[in-house]
Design goal:
Chain lengths: 269, 657
């Protein structure tokens, strides 16, 4: 049982499931990327998805945010079983994500990149926005105020106006996280948020992820390789290997799991 | 202003605020960039907030004579804390925000603080870690709520709550409100208005008690001297706990009624400077140094035409810029060329630096290189030097507009009385001079002469133009075995004027010759390495490169050449030097919090290096413990090369025929 689940159970309520993955399989031609995987993401938790290279972690995130469509199985989000959700729909229903390789608009400023995250929240039409008049301007001011809160939260005031492409990698990752947060997501998917960072940047990022989870109550599912980070950060861990789920539980449990040790150390049983 | 003072008793800061609220209520007193926007408070709003905050503090039990610690960066609510505490007759005690918990604990305990007002979670954590070591502390207040949601609300209170409670009570209870006015009226000129802890090059920090009336008299004299008015603006980015910020920004603003703008964060100061365009500016020499290094690097990367423009017009500025600034006679064609340069180069450059509107700029703390000084002055920046001390509540000497010498610090500041003691020590009496070191009567007695002068501990002399020239700390000036004069700081400063050298520490007292430990400037040497395709993995690797040693050897030779030209200093040429694998750091105790080198401690810590510098070896081993920013410790070990430097012949003293 997870920490989150334990605390919820103690308070006498069953954990609310935000997203449920049931027997999902994904194939690319003959390659089976995901095989019959089931798990749930509970409201308010930090869930880590780990596994060796090619285990199907990123594919799993891609299924969740509607980029891939699994051939078998179902994904239920906010109690609603969905047929074929597109990324756009997923985003408008509160699923935000960051990418393994930073995917920012290199030529835009950090601020503009983050403002892009507010786009789905803007109600005025493209024409209004292009004219920057009256209601569209007022709306932009509101969104800018919201974005400024995120900028302060992630401590990136000093790079507000800097073109994203000129920023060091660690900061680009932070801007990407800011853009995802600007969507006010219910579910935040982070694909290797700490890849390629040095120790200090990792520690900063860890702190920000925990703060996001605590302060905004955002549910987070993340993929990460650094086991130290995973164990510190997550309430629950899911382990994938060759597209199959081989473990699911609290970090301490998973760390001691025979299958997990074998998968990571490459010993056949 | 001063005439007013006698009638209105403008000798406490809270009364000054009320005076400005009455006289220039709608003018902006403070700004702060928050959430990307410049928020502002007029003098009226400042006065209202001061009253409400003071009321709130009295509700949580703060009483006259008690001390309030203030820890954090320059934020309006922290500045208000000074005023609110003073309104109740309590004593604000600002502490450096980067002080480690241990140092913080010492100051809080020494000053007997009952309330601590801090900026954010970082400082809250430090205070909470002091559990049990600061028994008098009753309340912890904070400004920035971020990251504090999980903390026990019983142990901390947001400043905004205290202010809100005070405001409500003031509105509801007329007696209470009258009591607060009475408390403000009861403040006396002799009251201690602040205790400033000096960073302490040796031993524990000392609390310098400043009296309210003296502080205001000092600030009034320099406000008049520099003709500061309520139209001026200053960006307050200097450490809140430093006399420089408390005097130049806080005290002068309270006297002149000008606006202080608080930056958004420490990282955004450069941008905020540009947005605010201050008219009064202070920066230590290293800031000017860093800016020039950055400009130089940027120009090296610029296109050919831009470089040509820059070089041409900087040449013109060098030739006639300072003369124009000082209003001396300049040929017409030079004036025209300078005007063109202003249009094409100087104005855009000043704008990029945020210097466009500066009317008066000061630098102090360390010696500034003549070329560096001239560079900024030739752009039309009225940069002057001052010499000051916490014990003087800053000013001892300062240069007046137009009478500038790069290697001197000016004549005595207004109403300051200076004399040079027999051992060369500078002593002064000044309007702002301190009352005592808190809790240290013996130290106070040591610092004062029997006839009421303060000993600065600095050695210096007045030059031909009547400007004071500081050579070194009086106690640091030593002699070589030959009996020749050894002024370490003088040598170090000459070395530090080279862009590749960030820090230098010279040894030589009671030795045969002078040696030196150097720090490379990572940004300058790093840029050089990049231009020359030299790969390095760390500061340590870069510092150990033979090419880097060659470059610094050339710099040291140049210093020796210039030393050889001065009869008193010629024997103190640097014979051997070594480059340190790490930057000298306040966290390791190698620098003070104001970034001054602690020579004695460095000599101890790097004893193996100093020994090798004097025993003729060509290498030295180093093995030291270092402290990381988060307080963890590590070890730094390795072998370092030692170089002999080129020496220049000592000119024979001219014999009297």
């Amino acid at each position: 049982m997870s920490n989150a689940a334990a605390s919820v159970a103690a308070s006498g309520k069953a954990p609310t499931v935000l997203l449920e993955v049931e027997n999902v399989s994904l194939r690319f031609g003959g390659v089976k990327a995901i095989r019959d995987v089931s798990f749930e993401i509970r409201k308010g938790e930090v869930l880590a998805i780990i596994g060796p290279n090619g285990a199907g972690k990123t594919s799993m995130l891609n299924c969740i945010n509607g980029f891939y469509h699994p051939q078998d199985g179902h994904i239920t989000y906010k109690g609603e079983r969905r047929a074929r959700m597109r990324p756009y729909e997923a985003a408008s229903r509160g699923i935000a994500r960051t990418f393994q390789n930073v995917a920012l608009f290199q030529g835009l400023s950090a601020l503009d990149n983050i403002m892009v995250g507010r786009n789905l929240k803007m109600r005025r039409s493209f024409a209004w926005q292009a004219l920057r008049l009256g209601p569209a301007l007022r709306e932009e001011v509101e969104h800018r105020a919201f974005v400024e809160k995120i900028i302060e939260f992630l401590e990136i005031q000093s790079i507000r106006k800097a073109p994203a492409g000129t920023l060091p990698y660690g900061l680009q990752k932070r801007v990407e996280l800011a853009r995802a947060l600007a969507m006010e997501p219910d579910l935040l998917l982070l694909d290797e948020p700490m890849a390629g960072m040095n120790l200090e940047e990792k520690e900063d990022m860890c702190r920000f992820i925990l703060d996001v989870n605590k302060q905004y109550g955002t549910t987070i599912a993340l993929i990460e390789h650094d086991m130290g980070v995973v164990m510190d950060l997550s309430d629950r861990v899911i382990v994938l290997d060759y597209g199959r789920k081989i473990a699911d539980g609290i970090p301490d449990q998973v760390k001691r799991d025979r299958h997990v040790i074998d998968a990571y150390l490459g010993i056949a049983d | 202003m001063i005439a007013d003072a006698s009638r209105e008793r403008l000798d406490t800061f809270p009364r000054l605020v009320l005076h400005h609220a009455a006289k220039r209520g709608r003018k902006i007193a403070m700004r702060h960039k928050d959430l990307g926007l410049w928020q502002s408070w007029s003098w009226l709003e400042l006065a209202a907030n001061m009253r409400a905050y003071a009321a709130g503090l009295s509700l949580i039990g703060l009483r006259r004579g008690e001390a309030v610690a203030i820890i954090g960066s320059n934020r309006p609510r922290l500045y208000w804390t000074f005023l609110a505490a003073q309104a109740l007759g309590a004593i604000p005690v600002p502490v450096y925000a980067d002080a480690i918990a241990d140092e913080l604990g010492y100051v809080l305990d020494d000053a007997g603080c009952v309330v601590a007002v801090v900026e954010d979670q970082e400082q809250v954590d430090k205070i909470l870690s002091l559990e049990g070591r600061v028994p008098k502390l009753r309340h912890l207040l904070y400004d920035e709520p971020k990251g504090l949601s999980d903390y026990d609300p019983k142990s901390l209170t947001p400043i905004s709550d205290v202010i809100a409670r005070g405001r409500t009570r003031l509105a509801a209870d007329a007696d209470f409100s009258r009591g607060l006015e009475a408390s403000i009226a009861a403040g006396k000129a002799e009251d201690i208005s602040v205790i400033l802890y000096t960073s302490g090059t040796t031993g524990r920090p000392k609390g310098v008690s400043i009296a309210s009336g003296r502080a205001i008299a000092a600030a009034a004299s320099t406000v008049a001297f520099d003709k500061l008015t309520d139209d001026d603006v200053a960006l307050s980015y200097l450490p809140l706990a430093w006399v420089g910020d408390h005097y130049l920004n806080f005290a002068q603003s309270m006297v002149a009624g000008f606006c202080i703008a608080c930056p958004e964060s420490t990282e955004t100061v450069q941008q905020d400077l540009k947005e605010i365009g201050p008219s009064f500016y202070f920066a230590p020499p290293r800031v000017f140094e860093n800016l020039l290094t950055r400009i130089t690097i940027r120009m090296q990367d610029a296109g050919g035409f831009q470089r040509f423009l820059f070089d041409t017009f900087m040449g013109i500025a060098r030739r006639c810029g300072e003369a124009i600034l000082e209003g001396r006679d300049v040929p017409l064609h030079a004036k025209l060329l300078y005007a063109l340069g202003e249009l094409l180069v100087y104005a855009p450059l000043k704008n990029a630096l945020g210097f466009s509107k500066i009317r008066i700029a000061y630098t102090a703390g360390e010696a500034i290189g003549p070329e560096l000084f001239s560079f900024y002055r030739s752009l039309g920046l009225n940069l002057k030097q001052l010499y000051g001390q916490t014990e003087a509540f800053l000013y001892v000497t300062c240069q007046s507009d137009g009478k500038i010498e790069p290697d001197a610090v000016g004549p005595a500041a207004p109403q300051v009385d200076i004399r040079i003691a027999e051992n060369g020590e500078v002593q002064f009496r000044s309007p702002g001079m301190f009352v005592a070191y808190h809790n240290l009567p013996e130290k106070t007695a040591e610092a004062m002469t029997s006839d009421g002068y303060v000993r600065t501990g600095d050695a210096g002399f007045f030059n031909a133009a009547g400007q004071l020239k500081i050579i070194d700390r009086a106690k640091d000036v030593g002699r070589l075995k030959s009996g020749a004069f050894f002024a370490p700081k003088y040598i170090e400063n000459k070395l530090k004027f080279f862009p590749n050298i960030k820090e230098a520490v010279a040894f030589g007292d009671q030795r045969e010759f002078v040696t030196c430990v150097l720090n490379i400037d990572l940004s300058a040497v790093g840029a050089w390495a990049e231009r020359n395709n030299i790969v390095y993995g760390s500061h340590k690797e870069l510092a150990a490169l033979p090419q880097v040693y060659d470059m610094l050897a050339a710099d040291v030779a140049e210093v020796n050449r210039s030393l050889s030209l001065e009869p008193e200093m010629a024997q103190a040429q640097v014979a051997r030097f070594i480059i340190l694998p790490k930057e000298l750091d306040a966290d390791d105790g190698e620098l003070t919090r104001t970034q001054k080198v602690r020579r004695g401690y460095i000599a101890e810590r790097y004893a193996t290096l100093v020994r090798a510098l004097y025993d003729g070896s060509s290498e030295a081993t180093i093995s030291i413990e270092i402290t990381f920013e988060d307080g963890r410790r590590g070890e730094l070990a390795g072998r370092l090369a030692i170089r002999d430097a080129q020496l220049f012949p000592v000119p024979a003293r001219e014999k009297v025929a």
